[in-house]
Amino acid sequence: MTMLQTPMPRNERTASAPIPRPRSQWINTDVADFWLAHLHPRWRIGCMLARVCERRAASEDAVTLALRMPQRWPKARAGQHIDISVDIDGVRHTRAYSLSAPPSDPRHIEITIANVAGGKVSRHLFEHLQPGDVLQISAPYGGLCLPDNVHAPLLLLAAGSGITPLRSLLLDALARDWRGAITLGYWAQSRQSLCFAEQWAALQAQHSVLCVHTFLTRDPVEPAPRISAEVLTQVAPELAERTVLACGPSGFIDLTRKLSAQARAFHAEGFSPLASTCSDSPTVRVELRRQGVTLDLPTNQPLLAALESQGLQPAHGCRQGICNTCACHRISGASRDLQRDSLSAEPATSIRLCVHAAADGLVLDL
Ligand code: FES
Fold it and tell me: Ligand 1 mean position to 74 CA, how many Å?
């Protein structure tokens, strides 16, 4: 079996990198964008914006959004993800969403957003986003992809919103006239949350290589079994010949990886709930990624002041959380908003150093 390094997308989806932003040697693009946005919602110089072209239901609890991307946006491919940043109640949030279909052309993509319980950003997008709205987006990223050999038998295993990247890979494979068998095992909690339900039967009817198994684990009449060795044996008895592609919560991925030990190859992406952590220690480790410096900084002091006391001179203006001059991307870890007394740990999120304190294992794009 070929075991590849599992690429981890962001959202709370583990590892993270800052949103790619053009840098200018003349101006601070974060500050310029902060003020430009007050003049017009689409005026930006330091970030990329996409427009919502169409909105349609993917299930009772999920919506598919067709997006028109900006001209300088890099070409995406099936299986990749983008970060979407939105302001909710004055706070910037960033989450990753997968392309749910192969891009129809370099400037048009689709993402599918599930209205998950407790998902602040997903709920906001699900409830409020309409055609014509504008979203801040990142470049596409992610390494989940199909094997080169179109004769390779595939086993796609998805749980919950893990269906979105796998659907894009599945549609891509069918568009490439895939010759090997393709089996999809898709676990959802209920019929209401089963995405693209009407499409699976139609695709099977059109493509003889495709076999789809859906499992509704909380069906009130007949709850389906969770993934297990027995279930895998039923859906793909010749597992040793299959290339397995899996996406879902990290527990699902861990189990799937173990169950796929005999598979020909295994590639997966997992996601897990956002950590909302705070160290009990009076100081926490803070890494300044661009400077290659690691410091122990107090948890009860604004990062700006704490960095200055270490001899550093981050850009700043008002020191009151107003001008955005001190904005900096939190790559990972947690910080505390001292004005709101709230913890946040979303990766790839912009924070203001003058009103945020380090809370736990912080990595800054500084
Ligand atoms: S927001 Fe003005 S210095 Fe931080």
Answer: 32
